[in-house]
TrEMBL record:
<dbReference type="InterPro" id="IPR036513">
    <property type="entry name" value="STAS_dom_sf"/>
</dbReference>
<dbReference type="InterPro" id="IPR021866">
    <property type="entry name" value="SpoIIAA-like"/>
</dbReference>
<dbReference type="InterPro" id="IPR038396">
    <property type="entry name" value="SpoIIAA-like_sf"/>
</dbReference>
<protein>
    <recommendedName>
        <fullName>STAS/SEC14 domain-containing protein</fullName>
    </recommendedName>
</protein>
<dbReference type="Pfam" id="PF11964">
    <property type="entry name" value="SpoIIAA-like"/>
</dbReference>
Length: 130
């Protein structure tokens, strides 16, 4: 199950992920939240707080997320999870790879506030070329 969670910043879209992602989670929660944020912010950041991780299916919704239009606006993704999550990452290190140009960082369960703080850091301003 996937549900929205508050992050305290409009350009940071937060999700609490419990178990496996379903079609309804992807179409009914994840995509509408990202689309709404994309309309309001030129740069997005995503938080996934993962609890009770049971695994994932390769080439499923995570793969679709990587390739969906609008992901070019995302510059950071924070993944927060506990020991089970860390165990799965040993077997599936490519779960969050493939997000080209996106800084993806992993935080342990006790560091949710640190992850949100990192996502809320100011977006660097790139000077326009003359």
């Amino acid at each position: 199950m996937l549900e929205r969670m508050a992050t305290g910043a409009g350009n940071v879209v937060g999700f609490r992920f419990d178990g496996e992602m379903t079609a309804n989670d992807y179409v009914g929660t994840l995509i509408p939240a990202l689309e709404a944020a994309e309309r309001s912010h030129p740069v997005l950041r995503i938080l996934f707080h993962i609890v009770n991780f049971h695994g994932w299916k390769p080439h499923g919704y995570w793969e679709r997320l990587k390739d969906r239009p609008g992901m070019e606006k995302v510059d950071r993704i924070a993944i927060v999870g506990g020991e089970k999550w860390e165990e799965w990452m040993n077997y599936l290190p490519g779960l969050f790879t493939g997000f080209t140009g996106i800084d993806v960082r992993y935080f342990t369960e006790g560091h949710l506030d640190v992850a949100i703080g990192w996502l809320r850091e100011p977006i660097p301003v790139v000077p326009e070329a003359r």
